[in-house]
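Q:
My hope is that you can spare some time for a protein that puzzles me. I hope you can help me see how the letters and the tokens relate. Thank you; the sequence and its tokens follow:
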Amino acid sequence: MVSNVDAAAEELLTWDGRGPKWRAAVEACLAAKESTGTADDARRAFLAAAKANGMLRASSV
């Protein structure tokens, strides 16, 4: 379970699937950590990447 931006960023680094949605999620996490983006943006990008990689459980949305 991922509950914050740091955990999301760490989780993304363990994934094998690293397509455009993965890259957008990493960038969103970095932006949130640097206060140039929001945690909500990072969450949405992380969920989109998880869905694109077939890793999203129905209860995660």
